[in-house]
Amino acid sequence: MTGAGIIYQCPWCKGSIDRGKDYWRCQGCGHAFEVRRGVPILDIGVKQKAEHQPLWAKSPSSGSITVDDPDKFLDEVEQKGWRVALGNLWGASSTALMRTVAANRVAWKYLLDINNSWKALDIGAGTGGVACQLAKECSVVALEKSWCDAAFMHLRAQQENLPSFQAIVADATSLPFEPNQFDLATMVGALEWVPFGWPEKPPREMQLQALREVCRILKPGGSFFLGIENGLYFGYFLGLPEVHTNIQFISLMDKKQAEILSQDLRGRPYLELTHSKDEYIELFKEAGFDEIQPFWLYPDYAFIHYIIPLDRPNIIKYFIAEHLDPRDTEPSLYRFYRFLDPSVVSNHIQFFGFLAQRPKGK
Ligand SMILES: [Zn+2]
């Protein structure tokens, strides 16, 4: 299980990498990258030590494994199987566990014509909810900042007999691959956490850098799928806490004010940025993508029941009139969807999916 013919490069000097059993070694700068429990650690930026809980793991929405003793947990994964071990950790019927197994996590694959010759990269792969399911259809590299998550996926892939799967530890802003290799890249619930590896740097810049890296490693004409929250979600105007920070109104505020609020309330910077639809599209364009299509993932990007194209007002109207169930929707939200113009609704829904393409000619 080595991830079909992917060519790796050193995240420090861009040199070629020789792959060994215990170390991967850069032919350029000589840097040795440890391989721990089958997972090469090709990381730069702030180290997320295995024994420390990654910062983003504190968010209930993150889906990252947090344990005091990762090796003990991974031994249990080996002995009892990944699903039992994760069930013991999170609860056998927990939402977090469902997120790692739900078939509709990858419902967006129907927007593409994936075949088994494809090479896909899942960035911020967590426990493999997307990556391990995608690996039933094509070759997959699953990239994680957290070593424990990556080592978990390595075992999960072995136990699921996935034919071509490689888990690695790396930073999204410096992808350890030579350019022009992947047919597909995905980030679902991950771009907003990228700035945590670079707390001293402007967060939007680091998100942009990650998107530029995606563009670089895709083949010309390759596809990128991004699943992410809307910073201008209508619920936030009603006072629902912003889901990454648990702070009311923060994603609606001017960035300077939001920074002051974050420092006041929790003594650390506001890094986990989300944006509006138009701001995401601008980020994609700046990073070099074209053919950017926005979708509404409903009810949630982890459990996708509907994929509604946001540039088709009649489809938005149809979905709201015929499929949105008032019994499942908070009343003021339901009235918002029901009574406002689709062009307004499309800017204030909760979960976006964006499909974008690396231009063919470049
Ligand atoms: Zn190097």
CATH class: Alpha Beta
Strand order of the largest sheet: 1-2-3-4-7-6-5-8-9-14-12-13
Give helix % range: 25-40%
Structural class: alpha/beta
Spatial separation of the terminal alpha carbons:
31 Å
Shape: globular
**CATH topology label:** Rossmann fold
Which features would summarize this protein structure in a list?
single chain, 362 residues, alpha/beta, Rossmann fold, 12-stranded mixed β-sheet, two-stranded antiparallel sheet, 14 strands, binds zinc ion
Give an overview of the whole structure.
About 2% of the residues have low confidence. Helix 6 packs across helix 9. A 12-stranded mixed β-sheet has the order 1-2-3-4-7-6-5-8-9-14-12-13. The chain has a two-stranded antiparallel ribbon with strand order 10-11. It starts with 16 loop residues before the first strand and ends in a 5-residue tail after the last strand. The chain is built from 12 helices and 14 strands. The protein has one domain: Rossmann fold (3-Layer(aba) Sandwich), CATH 3.40.50. It is of the alpha/beta class. Zinc ion binds next to loops.
Quickly describe the structure.
The protein is α/β, with parallel strands linked by helices and 362 residues long. The protein has helices at residues 70-80, 82-90, 95-101, 131-134, 147-159, 203-217, 234-237, 255-266, 277-287, 313-322, 331-339, 342-348, and strands spanning 17-19, 23-26, 32-36, 39-42, 119-123, 139-144, 165-170, 182-188, 218-229, 241-242, 247-248, 290-299, 304-309, 351-357. It has a twelve-stranded mixed sheet with strand order 1-2-3-4-7-6-5-8-9-14-12-13. A two-stranded antiparallel sheet has the order 10-11.
